[in-house]
Design goal:
Blueprint: H1 23-40, H2 44-50, H3 55-64, H4 82-95, H5 97-117, H6 120-132, E1 135-139, E2 155-159, E3 162-173, E4 178-186, E5 196-202, E6 208-213, E7 224-235, E8 239-240, H7 246-282, E9 284-285, E10 288-289, H8 294-322, H9 328-353, H10 364-371, H11 381-393
Parallel strand pairs: 1-4
Antiparallel strand pairs: 2-3, 3-7, 4-5, 5-8, 6-7, 9-10
Helix pairs in contact: 1-4, 4-5, 4-7, 5-6, 5-7, 7-8, 7-9, 7-10, 8-9, 9-10, 9-11
The protein binds flavin-adenine dinucleotide.
């Protein structure tokens, strides 16, 4: 179990280089790297093929202490910072972006939303469980509302001392493994986004079922499922934040969450580059290793510069968030750039592995497939561009 050091970030913490890690950040990265190499790496291909993350690995992630990174120690969590979550997601994604996103959704979306918006009773009930054994899922998207998330139609009808949920959510990460679902529904469709309200729904609540699991191009081990609500009754105590303020919960958590996706894509790119450097040093053609050809060296150099630029953007956005500074534009930029760097680096990896890049026996074809999701979820590339354009043109 990792123990986190003193966490309150100060301006002094960030006065050095962005990539300069404090002692506790360095130790955390080392522990997670060792875990990823010893516990995740041997399972990557099998998890991809079976499209499943086994419970023993999820339990090991809880034991490692990375499923409740920002949860206060008094609730059994790590009491650490958002930046620590980002480091963990990066390191896990370096080996398997499916494990990266499981941990990312848990920390940067579900726990983050509860820490900021849940009342004390809900926190006391949910945070110890999330830190020790329960996986969380974040359910906003629907078939008709992806980019236009607040056009959602899942209905929460007030009824006696609670609400009755009806509707369907689509593409929900962690749905197969999760016990705790943060679900966005509208209490008043006529009120537009002002009707949207966030509810916690526990697995097993009557009227709530997990629907079809998607068969995906990449991050195949990460479950992505439909959620079905048919007259699903929840108590008033299940509301996170206030009635009608769910849009704020969603906007704020997604602004932070997309830094986590930036970290996932950064880790993926870094992993793909490491594989490629190793391979091009070993593989010989024309009597030389591939890495001895200047044409290959320049491609690797460009990829390394891309990974470093993604890292600077991701770390900067995360550190700004921890310092309580505005980070909206930086978060959008980091996801935009990191997801493009991930795709480009994984594509180069496939090219430089040659035929071996195209077969499953080698690790890079999977990373190439996994990279594509970075430009889609938690706001597509066009939506990140929209956010950045709005800020720079204001
Ligand atoms: C593997 C996976 C996991 C996911 N996990 C979750 C989850 O855990 N929780 C959750 O709530 N959702 C999740 N999603 C949903 C995801 O967030 C949405 O797919 C995403 O927001 C895009 O929505 P959409 O698919 O409806 O695409 P659309 O909104 O239909 O967009 C299609 C295309 O149109 C473009 N476009 C749309 N509007 C504009 C515009 N105004 N200007 C310019 N271009 C535009 C988009 O950029 C995109 O290229 C997941 C999706 C996937 C595939």
């Amino acid at each position: 179990m990792i123990t986190f050091g003193p966490m309150t970030p100060t301006v002094a913490d960030t006065r050095g280089a962005l990539t300069q890690l404090s002692e506790d950040e360095r130790l955390l990265r080392q522990s997670v790297r060792e875990f990823a190499e010893s516990r995740v790496r041997p399972l990557v291909r099998e998890m991809d093929e079976h499209a499943k993350i086994g419970r023993p690995l999820i339990d090991a992630l809880f034991d490692l202490g990375v499923m409740g990174i920002e949860i206060p120690e008094s609730f059994g969590g790590g009491g650490a910072s958002f930046f620590h979550s980002v480091l963990v997601v990066e390191e896990l994604s370096r080996v398997d972006p499916s494990i990266g996103v499981l941990v990312d959704v848990q920390n940067t979306l579900v726990i983050n939303a509860l820490l900021h918006w849940a009342g004390s009773d809900l926190k006391a009930r949910l945070l110890p469980a999330l830190a020790s054994k329960s996986v969380g899922a974040y359910a906003l998207s629907e078939a008709g509302s992806g980019s236009d998330a607040f056009a959602l139609t899942t209905r929460a009808r007030e009824d006696g001392d609670g609400y009755v949920l009806s509707g369907r959510k689509l593409w929900i990460t962690n749905a197969n493994e999760a016990d705790i679902f943060l679900v966005f529904a509208t209490v008043n469709p006529d009120a537009g986004y002002r009707g949207i309200t966030a509810f916690v729904v526990d697995r097993g609540t009557p009227g709530f079922t997990i629907g079809k699991k998607e068969d995906k191009l990449g991050i195949r081990a990460s479950s992505t499922c439909e959620l079905i609500f048919e007259d699903c009754r929840v108590s008033r105590a299940a509301i996170v934040g206030e009635v009608g303020k769910g849009y704020k919960v969603a906007i704020e958590t997604l602004n932070e969450g997309r830094i986590g996706i930036g970290a996932q894509m950064l880790g993926l790119a870094a992993g793909a580059l490491e594989h490629t450097i190793r391979y091009t040093k070993e593989r010989k053609q024309f009597g030389k290793s591939l890495a001895e050809f200047q044409g290959v060296q320049f491609q690797l150099a460009r990829a390394a510069a891309g990974v470093e630029s993604a890292r600077l953007l991701v770390y900067n956005a995360a550190r700004l968030r921890d310092l309580g500074q505005p980070f909206l534009t930086e978060a959008a930029m980091c996801k935009l750039v990191a997801s493009e760097v991930a795709e480009a680096t994984a594509s180069l990896a496939v090219n430089l592995f040659g035929g071996n890049g195209f077969v499953k026996e080698y690790p890079v074809e999977k990373l190439y497939r996994d990279a594509k999701i970075g430009q889609i979820y938690e706001g597509t590339t066009n939506l990140q561009l929209q956010t950045i354009a709005k800020q720079i043109l204001a």
